[in-house]
UniProtKB/TrEMBL annotation:
Span of domain DUF4371: 8-150
Source organism, top-level taxon: Eukaryota
Protein name: Zinc finger MYM-type protein 1-like
Stored PANTHER family: DUF4371 DOMAIN-CONTAINING PROTEIN, PTHR45749
InterPro entries referenced in this protein's UniProt entry, alphabetically: DUF4371 (IPR025398), RNaseH-like_sf (IPR012337)
Pfam annotation, one family: DUF4371
Residue ranges that the Swiss-Prot or TrEMBL entry lists as coiled coil: none
Length: 185
């Protein structure tokens, strides 16, 4: 098996991206594919395997730098499933602020308590600790930002130092949308 056969055919965006990286001179990826020649079908380039590898590296960095904040936003996909984006933000050893997207999480309900339970489960799944969570950021929806039944209030019950910050980009987006509306004459 060679690089061409490993990435041959119309195999989608992911494999096309790998082929692009090889064509662009990515030596590490090229060497990996060449090493896999001996293993026949085992290229270890499936999106599932690489997703796990990427997430694992991100989580190792988060744990190494100890403190992290969570950033989430809920959305409805085209099949009307409620989902939530899940990102972490941390400061690395060089004092550079890093924001990493970890994925989409399907929500059973959009109540603050269900979203909180889903977040806690995800944080624990990544072996992160709430005691290292100094911040949380969401949009201004009452189920996210509410002082009594919002996600931020429930997270504060578990970690009193997890300061809630309203997502300024979300506020800016709403302001721009309102400013762009054409007034009726």
């Amino acid at each position: 098996m060679d690089i061409d056969s490993a990435l041959a055919g119309n195999q989608g965006i992911f494999r096309s991206f790998l082929a692009f990286r090889i064509d662009s001179g990515d030596k590490e990826l090229t060497n990996h594919i060449n090493r896999c020649k001996k293993k026949k079908n085992t290229t270890m380039i499936s999106k599932t395997i690489l997703y796990k590898v990427v997430i694992e590296k991100i989580i190792i960095n988060v744990i190494k730098n100890k403190y992290f904040s969570i950033l989430c936003d809920k959305t409805t996909d085209f099949s009307t499933k409620e989902q939530m984006t899940f990102s972490v933000r941390y400061v690395d050893i060089e004092e550079i602020q890093i924001k990493e997207f970890l994925g989409f999480i399907e929500l059973g309900s959009i109540t603050g308590s269900v979203i909180r339970d889903t977040l806690i489960k995800q944080i624990e799944c990544y072996k992160l600790s709430l005691k290292n969570l100094p911040g949380q950021g969401y949009d201004g929806g009452s189920n996210m930002s509410g002082r009594i039944n919002g996600v931020q209030a429930f997270i504060l019950e578990d970690q009193s130092l997890a300061v809630y910050i309203h997502c300024f980009n979300h506020q800016l987006n709403i302001c721009i949308l309102k400013a762009c509306e054409v007034q009726a004459i």
